[in-house]
Amino acid sequence: MSNGAKILSEMNDRSREVFRRVVEGYLASGDPVGSRTLTRSMSERLSAATIRNVMQDLELLGLLDSPHISAGRIPTQQGLRMFVDGLLEVGTVAAEDRQLIDTASASNESDITSLLDHIGGTLSGITRGATVVLAPKAEAPIRHIEFVSLAADRALVVLVFANGHVENRVFTPPPGQTPSSMREAANFLNALAEGKTLSELRRSISQDIANRRQEIDSLARALVESGIALWDGTDEHAERLIVRGRSNLIENSAEAQDIDRIRILFDDLERKRDIADFLELAETGEGVRIFIGSENKLFSLSGSSLVVSPYMNADRKIIGAVGVIGPTRLNYGRIVPIVDYTAQLVGRLLSERSSG
What we know:
The protein folds into four domains: 3-86, Winged helix-like DNA-binding domain superfamily/Winged helix DNA-binding domain (Arc Repressor Mutant, subunit A, Orthogonal Bundle), CATH 1.10.10.10; 91-137 and 282-356, 2-Layer Sandwich (Beta-Lactamase); 138-196, 2-Layer Sandwich (Enolase-like, domain 1), CATH 3.30.390; 211-273, no CATH class. The protein is 49% helix and 18% strand. The chain contains eleven helices and eleven strands. Helix 6 (95-105) runs antiparallel to helix 7 (112-127) and helix 6 (95-105) runs parallel beside helix 11 (332-355).
C-alpha cells in the first residue's frame, strides 16, 4: 500500500470529505478554498471552526497548504497525487468532445505525422492544454538527431532516418535544459547514432552510463579507504562524495586529481542520464498516467501536470503516446477519459493503416 493510500484509509469520513471538497473546489476555480465555503457544501452541518481544525490536521499531514495570509487552503503536490490515486471520479467523454476527436481522426491525411498533428491540435482545443502526441517509433537506423528549443517548457526533436523519413516530436525537456545543452546532447548523440536505431542508441547510452558509474565507484572506493572522503551512495540518482576537511589538506596531487576526475564523471553521468531521458519519452506503462508538478522531471515544470496514455498497435505493443499538459489544477475527471479515448482511437487507426 502506498503512503498516500495508507493516509487515506486512516482518515475518518469527515476529514476525507473536507479534503475532497477542498481539492475539487481548487481544481474548479484555481483559488484557495475557505472553511466558510465548505460549511455550505458539507454533507453534515459543521461549524467553520470545526472545518478549520480539520484543515489544520490535513495541513500537518502535508496534504493541504495555505498559500498566503488568506484562510483558504489549496492541495499540495502530495495531496493532489493522493486525490488522483484514491478519490478521483473519472467521467465519460462528452458526446461533443467525442465527435470532435472522431472528426479529426477521420481526416484523409495520407501522412501519419500530419494526421497525428491534426488530432493533437483538436485535443489541445478541447482540453485548453498543450498536447503531446508521440508518433510511432520508427526502428530504422538514424542519420541525424536535432533538438530545437521552442519555449522554456517545450522542445522539438527532429529525427532523420537513413531511409529519408523525418519524424518531429514535441516534448517537455528536463528542467534546466538550455538551447546550448540541447545542442551538446544532439552532438553527442549524432557522434554515436550513425547506423543505429533508437533502441540500439538507447542501449549504447545505458552501457555508457553503467561504465561511468563503475569508474566513479572504483575511484571513490580508493578515496574512501584512505579516509579522505565519505561515500553517500544510497540513492543512485543522488550519490555524493563528501570530501573530509579542506581540499588544501590533500597533500597528494594524485588524490586531488581523483577528486576532480570524480566531479567531472558526475557531471558527465548527469548529462548522459538527461540524454537517456530524452530518448525514453514514450517508454511508459499501459493505461493513463498522471504526472503532477515536479514528480517526474521529464514533464515537470512546477505548477504543471501531464496526463498521458500510450497507444498500441494490433499486437498490443506500445508504439507511441498521447498526452495533455496543463496547470496542476486540470479538470482530471474530464481530461483523463478524453486522453484515454484519443489514445485508443489513434492505436486503432494506425493498426488499420499498417494492415491496409
